[in-house]
Each structure stands twice: as C-alpha cells, then as structure tokens.
C-alpha cells in the first residue's frame, strides 16, 4: 500500500473551508466513483483500491489516502491532482 498525505493551510475559517471541501468532494465522487461519508469536519472516502479521509480544520485541510497495489503505480499523479484540486479550491 502507498500512503499519500497532503496538507494545505487556509485563512477561510472552518465553515468556509468545509463548504469548499464539500464542493470538491462532490466533484471528486462524480469523477472518480468515490463513496463519501461525512462525520463532522471529516469525510471518509473510498473506492476499489483506495480509501482515505479529508480533515477540515480551522486553518488547515489535510488529505490522507491509502492506495492499493494497482493505484500505487500512479501515486505521483494522484498526489499532484490532489494538490492542484486543493490549491484551486482554497484560492
């Protein structure tokens, strides 16, 4: 298994960051056939070969993702996509 961890600081406050995270998670669930389960300020995401979570804090958003063997070969591009999506969502 490959572990991906991406954290970004923000100055939006928890509520605004959560709203942006909700929109991002909704888009990613459609594009990548993810299942999302919100629990407070954390959303757990999963699909075949991958599972993880997004944690929304007062001044940070952290994405943790574990990839199975098949997806681990694409971990670099997956991490890059997560970083770009977060940067765009928090801009």
Notes on the protein architecture:
The chain is an alpha+beta fold. Helices cover 43% and strands 37% of the residues. A 5-stranded antiparallel beta sheet has the order 1-5-4-3-2. Helix 1 (14-32) crosses helix 3. The protein is globular. The protein starts with a strand and ends with a helix.
Provide the structure class. Answer: alpha+beta
Q: Given the C-alpha coordinates, what overall shape results?
A: globular
How many β-strand runs?
5
* Gap from first CA to last CA: 31 Å
* Mean pLDDT across residues: 92
- What pattern of helices and strands is seen along the backbone? EHEEEEHH
Q: Approximately how much beta-strand content do the residues carry?
A: 35-45%
Mind summarizing the main beta sheet? 5 strands, antiparallel
Given as residue ranges, the uncertain stretches (5+ residues, pLDDT < 50) are: none
Strand order, sheet with most strands:
1-5-4-3-2
Question: What are the defining features of this structure?
Answer:
5-stranded antiparallel β-sheet, alpha+beta, 3 helices
Question: Summarize this, please?
Answer:
This protein is of the alpha+beta class and 91 residues long.
Write the layout of secondary structure elements.
Elements: E1 2-9, H1 14-32, E2 35-39, E3 42-47, E4 50-56, E5 60-67, H2 69-72, H3 75-90
Antiparallel strand pairs: 1-5, 2-3, 3-4, 4-5
